Amino acid sequence: QLQFVESGGGLVQPGGSLRLSCAASGFTLDYYAIGWFRQAPGKEREAVLCINRRGGFTVYSDSVKGRFTISRDNAKNTVYLQMNSLKPEDTAVYYCGATPMYCSGSGYLDYWGQGTQVTVSS
């Protein structure tokens, strides 16, 4: 069974940075694209970024372009989401998940974890 543990969330001031980690267990990341999506209270789920098995990535949200990056370390079975220049509107629960091989056009993921809270506030 595919399982994920997200970590690295917390409270940060506007303009600050956080790095989220997504540790996978029960499977090998090598054959999956790994993505992040977020959901803020009262809002719909929003796909953020995805990285495919060969390292290419897709940015789904215009609001994070130039601020968020995604990377993977297959040896550690972990994917990272580096978030810089954070804004209050980035406040949400962030989830990582997987889909086989390549990122979908819509950001759809077949499996995902429990999420980690990110709060951007002064």
Descriptive labels:
122 residues, mainly beta, 50% strand, globular
Describe the structure.
The radius of gyration is 13 Å and the shape is globular. The protein starts with a strand and ends with a strand. Helix content is 0%, strand content 50%. Strands 2, 4, 5, 6, 9, 10 and 11 form a seven-stranded mixed sheet that branches. It is an all-beta fold.
Could you give the topology of this structure?
Elements (H helix, E strand, L loop, with lengths): L2 E5 L2 E3 L5 E8 L6 E8 L6 E6 L5 E3 L8 E6 L4 E6 L8 E9 L10 E2 L3 E5 L2
Q: What's the short story on this structure?
A:
The protein is mainly β and 122 residues long. The protein is 0% helix and 50% strand.
Give helix and strand order, one letter per element, not per position. EEEEEEEEEEE
What is the helix fraction of residues, given as a range? under 10%
The radius of gyration computed from the alpha-carbon positions, rounded to a whole number of angstroms, is: 13 Å
Overall morphology:
globular
Total E-strand runs: 11
Average predicted local confidence, pLDDT: 95
Please summarize the sheet with the most strands: 7 strands, mixed
Proportion of beta-strand residues: over 45%
Q: Separation of termini?
A: 40 Å
| DSSP summary: helix tally | 0
Would you identify the regions where 5 or more consecutive residues have pLDDT less than 50?
none
Q: Helix/strand/pairing class, anyone?
A: mainly beta
